[in-house]
Structure formats: C-alpha cells, structure tokens
Amino acid sequence: MALAAALPDLEVAGAEVVRVATVHAGMLFGSGKIAELKARFDEAGVGLVLVDGPVSPVQQRNLEKEWGVKLLDRTGLILEIFADRARTREGVLQVELAALSYQRTRLVRAWTHLERQRGGFGFVGGPGETQIESDRRAIDEQVVKLKRQLEQVVKTRELHRAARAKVPFPIVALVGYTNAGKSTLFNRLTGAEVLAKDMLFATLDPTMRGVTLPTGQKIILSDTVGFISDLPTQLVAAFRATLEEVLSADLILHVRDISHPETAEQAADVAEILASLGVSAQTPQIEVWNKLDQVDPAAHEALVAQAAQRPQVFALSALTGEGVPDLLAAVGAELDEDRSEAVLALPFGEGRRRAWLHDRGLVVAETEEEDGWRLTVRWTARQAARFQEI
After folding, report:
1. CATH code, domain with 45
2. Phi and psi for 117 in degrees, rounded to 5?
3. 220 forms bridges with which residues in the sheet?
4. Side-chain half-sphere of 314: how many Cα atoms within 13 Å?
5. In a domain, 246, yes or no
6. Long-range contacts from 8-15, C-beta under 8 angstroms, 24+ separation
7. pTM over 0.70
8. Per-residue confidence in pLDDT tens, the chain, 390 aa
9. By the 8 A CB rule, do 245 and 173 touch?
10. Are residues 208 and 264 in the same domain?
11. Are 182 and 147 found together in one domain?
12. 204, 82 contact by CB (below 8 A)
C-alpha cells in the first residue's frame, strides 16, 4: 500500500493478501481466484493491478489479457516511482538503464505472435529477424549508449568527490529505510529545502550541504536514497553509484522511523544493504530513532529512556527538533580529532595559504617578520595534510 501511495495521482481502491499454495507457471493464481478477482476488478472499475512480488513476463501477459487491466509487479512499480522522482542527470540515466534491463525481459508481453518477422533479403534463405529480436537488439543498443553517458557522469562525480576529499571537513552520511525521515532531518540540520514528504522514495538523488556544529566544527552532510527490502537486483546495481557517498563517509547516521511497527525489520534490512555495499565495519555509526512526535506519550517516554541507556543511540523528532541538539553534540564528539600546535613560516608570496588558515580559524598567533609571516596554528592531522596540498 505504501509503495502504491508513493505514486502521484494513483487512487488505491483496495488491497488483499492472496495465499498461493501452488504458483501456476502461466497464470500465477488458480482459475477460481482469477475469475473471482476479475469480477471484483470489473465491479470497481479497476484499470491497474499491482502485485507485491515478482511476476514473470508470461504471467503478466496472461493476467492482463484475462483481466483486461494493466499489471505491474513490485519491480515495475518501484521503477515507476524512481522515474517520477529522479531529478539529476545521473538519477535519470540510472532509471532509464534499470527500466531497459527490466523491459528487455518483458518483450514477450508486447509480441504475442512470435512468428512475426521482419523480412530478410532472402539471399541465404531461412527466416528473417523476428520483431522481438529486433526490439531486443534496439534495447541493447540503447543500453550501450546510456552506459557511455553514465560513465561520463560518474567521472564527473569522481572529480567532485576527489575535490571534496581535499577539503578538511568530515563527511556524515544519512542512511535508513525509505520514508524514515532522513530528508526532514537533513533540512533541520542544514536549513536546506530538500523534498521531504511522507511517502516512499521522496529522495532519489544524493544531496550534500555544509553544516557548522555548535562546537564550530564544519562537516559535510549527505542525504541518500532510502533503502527498501527485496529491492530488485538490477535496481541495486543501477543505484549503487548514488550510494557511494556512504562508502567514503567518516560517520554514518542510521535514521530509523521508530514509530513504524516494523522498525526492527527495517533496521535489519538497512544493516544488510550497508554490508552488501561494502561499508567498512570500522566506520562509526550513530543510530537515530526518529519520529518521536508520532508515538503516544507513554511510548515516547519509554523510547527516550531506552535510547539514553544505549551508547550511540539518540531518540528525537526531526519535525519538531526535539533531541536534535543532543545528536549534534554526539556527532561533534565522534568527529572531534586530536589537535596539535605547529609553527609555520610563510613568505609574503604565499598569501593564499595564509588566508586558507585564517578562513578555517586555525591561527592561534601571528607575527610579521622581514621575509614573511610566522604563524602558530592548532589543527588536526586531516587539516595539516590538506594544507600541504595547497
């Protein structure tokens, strides 16, 4: 239901759990259930049927013919949502690539008469090229084009990532199940206006903003696409690039919708996906129990008490701001690196490097001498390494 509600202008007429003792290869359901559902669809005027699970191309074709409706399985529905949400060039290309990979396996739906052929020249005899083969070849050619375009986009992202790596600011990545409230928390912390709605996959494109913590420390905060259980294989591959920011993060904030009845299962799914992405076990994580504003008062107090007793767990409401200061303090403490003092001698011709030190508030003392400046700085190892690259 939540997936269906994520598509705009889609009115959900009803939902039902259908227990299938034996999966029928050609029709998925038995003849009795198919007839029963057809009668209900006709009565309700249903034009689109969603199946929360995999449906083979043959099953989809046969069910659409039998019911006289359009049918989407779980993968098809998620692709529709992604296509509606993607905004960046990379996001659009990733969606198109995943959609083509999916469509290639469903060509049997479009051509039920597989004997239909495009005429060959007749020089060597035998059949010409079937329409389904022609369509498959056209899709393969389009996939090659998209991959080339995507390679260029990925190269650009790698350049941007390399540039950010030179900046002495740690990266904090927000991850979590879709609709956990990551974008609301992102907006709360950064003052940005990223799309934040109560629906699945509101965020598809990674967004990054600079944040200054109460301690004065600066970080880069990254909002990522929401995770979901049973994400189709081709979608995991297609959207891996949008999650690469997580791999390079110095700290991960795992945002959970603590008001959701299946919050524990969702958290397990997120942990599994992070592991499959190759996120290092050494990367520190803070667990954020979000949406305290959506639980009743008794549960609210219990959750706050539970979080207080567990290390690196914080209960809050990104919507109201409750608990956010404690989270920011914890982020600052986690990223607080050891600082050391150093004395630098900079010639007058290195004004840009001097300005860099002052802009970041690293200069403790400074004197001007005959041939340049003598500066005492207090910085982290990361900042010292960055300074050497200027």
Report:
1. 3.40.50.11060
2. -130, 155
3. 171, 210
4. 22
5. yes
6. 8/84, 10/48, 13/44, 13/46, 14/44
7. no
8. 567 776 667 788 888 888 887 888 888 888 899 999 999 999 989 889 998 888 888 898 899 999 999 998 888 888 887 777 666 677 778 778 888 888 887 765 444 444 444 444 343 444 445 667 777 888 888 888 888 887 887 777 667 666 655 566 788 999 988 888 988 999 899 876 644 444 444 444 457 788 888 888 888 888 877 776 666 666 665 566 567 667 778 899 999 999 999 999 999 988 988 887 788 777 889 999 999 999 999 999 999 999 999 989 999 999 999 999 999 999 998 887 777 899 999 999 999 999 888 877 789 999 999 999 999 998 877 778 778 877
9. yes
10. yes
11. no
12. yes
Number of domains in the chain: 4
Residues 202 and 309 in one domain: yes
**Statement to judge: residues 187 and 250 lie in one domain:** yes
The answer to whether residue 117 is domain-embedded is no
Q: Do 183 and 300 touch, CB atoms closer than 8 A?
A: no
376 and 304 housed in the same domain: no
Q: How far apart are CA 387 and CA 389, in angstroms?
A: 5
Token output for 166: 């030179």
What range defines the domain where residue 352 resides? Answer: 339-389
Angle between helices 89-104 and 131-165 (to 10 degrees): 150
Instruction: Kindly state whether residues 331 and 351 are assigned to the same domain.
Output: no
By the 8 A CB rule, do 348 and 373 touch? yes
CATH number at residue 236: 3.40.50.300
Other CB atoms within 10 Å distance of the CB of residue 334: 15
Does residue 8 lie within any of the structural domains? Answer: yes
Helix, strand, coil % in the chain, rounded to nearest 5: 45, 20, 35
* Domain membership flag for residue 123: no
